[in-house]
Amino acid sequence: MIFLGIDCGTQSTKVAALDWETGEILASEGDSYGFIEGLPPGAMEQDPAWWTAAAEKGIRAVATKLGSRAAEIAGIGVSGQQHGLVPVDRDGNVIRPAKLWCDTSTTAECAEITAALGGDAEVISLTGNTMRAGYTAPKIRWLHKNEPANYERAATFLLPHDYLNFWLTGEARMEYGDASGTALLDIESRTWSGPACAATAPGLADRLPKPGPSSAACGFLKSELASRWGLPGRVLVSAGGGDNMMAAIGTGNVAKGCITASLGTSGTLFAFSETPVADPMGEIAGFCDSTDHWLPLLCTMNLTLVTEHVRKLFGWSHADMDAAIASVPPGADGLRMLPYLTGERTPDLPNATGVLAGMTLANFQPARLARASVEAVVLGLAYGLGRLRDLGVPADEIRLTGGASESPVWRQICADAFGLPVVCLDSSKGAALGAAIQAGWTHASHASKGGAVCLGLLCERLVPLASARRSDPAPAAHAVYQSMLEETRRLRGAMEPFLA
After folding, report:
1. What is the pTM of this model?
2. Which residue out of 103, 178, 243, 348 is catalytically annotated?
3. What is the Cα–Cα distance from 311 to 316, expressed in whole angstroms?
4. Could you tell me the residue range of the domain that residue 207 belongs to?
5. Residue 243 bears catalytic tag
6. pLDDT tens across 64-76, in order?
7. Domain of 36: which CATH number?
8. Residue 10 carries which DSSP code?
9. Residue 450 lies in a domain
10. Is the same domain home to 370 and 308?
């Protein structure tokens, strides 16, 4: 059997075909897209039609590569960028472009919802999360305030992966994992929080799909799509999930002690938990995962977004950038950066800008700036690792995914900053692989008529680690980075009036 994983990301949608028996990625294809231009500052939007067009293009190309084996496709799983708002009318039409996770134009709405609920502590008690600009709830309030006709026209609100599921199956539903990123779900009871919905917009609870288990199928592929793509007539579509939830499955992060760090445009660090984890400081997101457990998570908005900007400033290739970074010792000879080029989610500074500090004639040069940028974004994740430990989440090993994990220089800086071994996977398609595995797990459970199918054993077989790309921490470098974490905290405090 073959299972497809669709990963609908911020910059592209990719499709991967997983051979269920061998674990081999047989084919993969994708297509990229940008953002709607000319929007006000902070607004980031895309047309969901771009996602479906890219997914269809990828599925067609993968099916062509598979040839006669396309007849073996038994299931599809979808991973999607979290938090995006897709308003849909009663006829299933998208009402307006989707506001994305990186849209920071809703800070006023966050404050309004928080005040209505009685403050951050009460919001955390209701949902397990504070109200952040990236989440879905403030986007819905923004829609009600700024486009009331569109709000009234909306029959339901979907997240990006839910919308792709709807496109594939005709079923509008949400699973617990991605739904928890709306800041409207009570992560402990896995039900919509009545007070949070009421504080967000009138009648909202009636417009949200009922959340359901991540282990239950969404439905089956529409017959017209199966016929159009030359696929079998009964292809199961699993519940899918948010990109971080799918990356957890795709990196085998389905048991205690394993931590995943995703090094993409943004940075995330997350762990498996058998019980809900709510951070009283609101820095660690209290999410559910897409295996019907929980996924405490830290997210930073600035990761390769920052380092790619530095690379392009100097016209370097990725190899040039790595060589420049490797030529500089840990600590970049005192050059420090607060990498908040697009505001920041953790710490919660949506309107912040970046800061360079410690500049001298000796260190203010390209290679040191490159190293300082990588160290700054990785230390943001290292701070999150400390918070996870403070909340009782064990950490034994870090599994890296995302484009930057391909770099040996990045891997070593991560190991040194985290103070833990880091290991990569044989496949860099963490979220797409996770979506395909979830589809296979759901199909197997469906075939066994509700019998238990162990996801952990499936991941052990289907998520091979690349032991040759393992990096262990150097004690001296780790000590430097521990000191830099405290320096960063002091620098942020000193710059606070300019970061709000």
Report:
1. 0.90
2. 243
3. 6
4. 2-239
5. yes
6. 999 999 999 999 9
7. 3.30.420.40
8. S
9. no
10. yes
